[in-house]
Amino acid sequence: MAKGKVGKTVGSLGDYLKEQRTSARLSLRQLADQAGVSNPYLSQIERGLRKPSAEVLQQIAKALRISAEQLYIRAGILSPDDGVGGSVELAILGDTGLTERQKQSLLDVYASFLALNAVDTEATPQAAEAPNNAPTTTETDSDAVTDEG
């Protein structure tokens, strides 16, 4: 396995973390202590040599007093194009009852479902339209009035 940067997203994450750390006037050692990670590990993250877990990112975000969601996006865990704000992903990442491996598996499955649905929608655009036997607005309105109570 070749040594070097893990990936562009991780590299930009490391640059961003270093920028945030220096803005907060924290040394590498101070941030590592506050985040509960080792000094060398944090250094490797900042240099783009290691990809931290969502849990470690959350601890770092808390220590820096910044948004964990922003770190997840920079690490490539969340996509900024999610539109809904990544609420499903954030719920998975924030669940303390799951292991890191389980969280990653759920995120992978969720992403694959979204990709599959996007392909299905592009292949059959009429699927997004109402079917011919859908109730009209007058039927729905009258049902809503009679069903109250």
From TrEMBL:
<dbReference type="InterPro" id="IPR050807">
    <property type="entry name" value="TransReg_Diox_bact_type"/>
</dbReference>
<dbReference type="InterPro" id="IPR001387">
    <property type="entry name" value="Cro/C1-type_HTH"/>
</dbReference>
<feature type="region of interest" description="Disordered">
    <location>
        <begin position="122"/>
        <end position="149"/>
    </location>
</feature>
<feature type="compositionally biased region" description="Acidic residues">
    <location>
        <begin position="140"/>
        <end position="149"/>
    </location>
</feature>
<dbReference type="InterPro" id="IPR010982">
    <property type="entry name" value="Lambda_DNA-bd_dom_sf"/>
</dbReference>
<keyword id="KW-0238">DNA-binding</keyword>
<protein>
    <submittedName>
        <fullName>Helix-turn-helix domain-containing protein</fullName>
    </submittedName>
</protein>
<dbReference type="Pfam" id="PF01381">
    <property type="entry name" value="HTH_3"/>
</dbReference>
<feature type="compositionally biased region" description="Low complexity">
    <location>
        <begin position="122"/>
        <end position="139"/>
    </location>
</feature>
<feature type="domain" description="HTH cro/C1-type">
    <location>
        <begin position="17"/>
        <end position="71"/>
    </location>
</feature>
